[in-house]
Amino acid sequence: MTAALIDGKAAAAALREKVAVEVARFREATGRAPGLAVVLVGEDPASAVYVRSKGKATREAGMESFEHKLPATTSQDDLLTLVDQLNADPSVDGILVQLPLPPQIDERVVITRIDPDKDVDGFHPVNAGRLATGLPGFVPCTPLGCLMLLRQTLGELSGKSAVVIGRSNIVGKPMALLLLGDSCTVTIAHSRTRDLPDVVRQADIVVAAVGRPEMVKGDWLKPGATVIDVGINRVEGSLVGDVDFASASAVAGAITPVPGGVGPMTIACLIRNTFVSACRTEGVTFDSAL
Ligand SMILES: Nc1nc(=O)c2c([nH]1)NC[C@@H]1CN(c3ccc(C(=O)N[C@@H](CCC(=O)O)C(=O)O)cc3)C=[N+]21
């Protein structure tokens, strides 16, 4: 093991603490707390765990958490009615509809119904467009957390070569845009990419977001590369990333563990985005370093 560990848990705790300090100021100035509404449809146990830890983090930051649990049989119309209510509710600054949704509900329709200015997940096409064109909006929490970890580890990212493995709307595409925004030379690799190990070997920065357990091996890496592992794969009861940690940590310069890497930063960024939403609504300024 030569690589430095990138401690996402510690970075997330520090970000949440910074937001909590600013939330106290916000409450003083406005007489109200920022609020996050989380909607869970169905009883998937993994989703229930995430939703619970989001609620806990929200309250610990001094914000209000509104939790809506709906049965798995909920119709799309009933879910849209709830989204409309949350859009209209001035105590709600952020709305998160936990994905995946049951098969009778079209995710795109639901996400598009959320007011883009309350879309703290950054999943609405308006926010995707804002990110692509450099307008202020909401950036998806997982890639935003990855960017923060990279800046913390490397300082200036300008001129570095980055490979993002995975092209999802939630992680891969926004991650590539964020790295481009920091003046990296960005390659997006995916399941049809030829000679993937050779492509990855060119990169100073590797972000793995494919959902394939332990796919990225140590001998794919440029020695000293910084590796961000977005994968959360449950394999035989334990949690592993998309990177083969044992071989990769012998070659990388720095690497995120799973668990304790990107996951905790995702939740911290959700808290951050909710606070930023409340500040925009109230015209309160906030620390641009957040
Ligand atoms: N609308 C929506 N927004 C989301 O942001 C969203 C979602 N739906 N659906 C599910 C995924 C998954 N997700 C995670 C958040 C934190 C951890 C996390 O903190 N993981 C811990 C480990 C937790 C464990 O042990 O299971 C860690 O990596 O250290 C993981 C996964 C957010 N998601």
Automatic annotation (TrEMBL):
Pathway field of the UniProt record reads: One-carbon metabolism; tetrahydrofolate interconversion
Question: What positions does the domain Tetrahydrofolate dehydrogenase/cyclohydrolase catalytic occupy?
Answer: 6-121
As recorded in UniProt, its EC number(s) are 1.5.1.5, 3.5.4.9
Q: Which UniProt keywords apply?
A: Amino-acid biosynthesis, Histidine biosynthesis, Hydrolase, Methionine biosynthesis, Multifunctional enzyme, NADP, One-carbon metabolism, Oxidoreductase, Purine biosynthesis
List the record's Gene Ontology CC terms alphabetically: cytosol
Q: Cross-referenced InterPro entries, in alphabetical order?
A: Aminoacid_DH-like_N_sf (IPR046346), NAD(P)-bd_dom_sf (IPR036291), THF_DH/CycHdrlase (IPR000672), THF_DH/CycHdrlase_cat_dom (IPR020630), THF_DH/CycHdrlase_CS (IPR020867), THF_DH/CycHdrlase_NAD-bd_dom (IPR020631)
Domain Tetrahydrofolate dehydrogenase/cyclohydrolase NAD(P)-binding spans what residues? 140-280
Q: Where does the chain bind NADP(+)?
A: 166-168, 232
Catalysed transformations (reactions)? (6R)-5,10-methylene-5,6,7,8-tetrahydrofolate + NADP(+) = (6R)-5,10-methenyltetrahydrofolate + NADPH; (6R)-5,10-methenyltetrahydrofolate + H2O = (6R)-10-formyltetrahydrofolate + H(+)
Molecular function (GO) terms for this protein are: methenyltetrahydrofolate cyclohydrolase activity; methylenetetrahydrofolate dehydrogenase (NADP+) activity
Q: Quaternary form?
A: Homodimer.
Q: Which family, according to UniProt?
A: Belongs to the tetrahydrofolate dehydrogenase/cyclohydrolase family.
Name the chain's protein. Answer: Bifunctional protein FolD
Organism listed in the record: Sphingomonas rhizophila
